[in-house]
Design brief:
The chain is mainly α. It has two domains: 62 residues; 124 residues. The two termini are 27 Å apart. 26% of the residues are buried.
């Protein structure tokens, strides 16, 4: 569980800098340069993510359960997950989905976290999905007060929403029928 907690701290510390210290972040970018800042940020985030995955795998075998989810909650989780992949794709493809949701990746994270909290009650699950839920909500709130940043993304196009939905649903199917069991050892079905 210690690796898992350290991973959460590293990952969410880097991902929360803009939420709690955006002026400091902007100062560091000006001081080090965009590329160097992104390199440092990415390295710490990757180390945190690896520790989360590794620690989560170890902690799943030993942590207690806070609540038992009925079998039907797996269907609720699958329903919450349905828009997640299209939203993730739409985050980098300007279109109506991105315009209407404003921050589709944060919305996808919120839906992913809620869906998994509904169907997973172990302590490590609540810590993982709860941390992502709290972070995504806090980031969504803080984005409204921050100056927009220039980001590199695909050109705007009428087909971007179609690509996001079809591609996202295809990824959803791959995850439901194969990848989730292969990656995490648990079939969502």
């Amino acid at each position: 569980m210690n690796l898992f907690i350290v991973g959460l701290i590293l990952f969410f510390t880097t991902h929360s800098i803009s939420i709690v210290a955006d002026p400091w972040r902007n100062h560091m970018v000006a001081r080090f340069g965009e590329k160097r800042w992104q390199g440092i940020y990415s390295l710490i985030s990757i180390v945190g993510f690896v520790l989360i995955v590794w620690g989560y795998g170890e902690a799943r075998e030993t942590t207690a359960s806070l609540y038992e989810s009925p079998l039907w909650t797996h269907h609720v989780a699958a329903l919450f997950m349905l828009p997640v992949f299209p939203l993730l794709i739409a985050a980098n493809m300007p279109g109506r989905i991105k315009t209407k949701t404003q921050h589709p990746m944060l919305l996808a994270t919120i839906l992913w976290a809620i869906g998994h909290l509904v169907s997973n009650g172990a302590v490590v699950d609540v810590l993982l999905f709860g941390a992502f839920l709290v972070w995504a909500i806090a980031d969504r709130i803080s984005v409204a007060s921050r100056a927009p940043r220039m980001t590199h993304q695909m050109p705007s196009g009428r087909l971007n929403d179609v690509i996001a939905v079809i591609g996202g649903l295809a990824l959803y199917a791959v995850f439901v029928f194969w990848a989730h069991a292969w990656l995490f050892g648990v079939s969502p079905l």
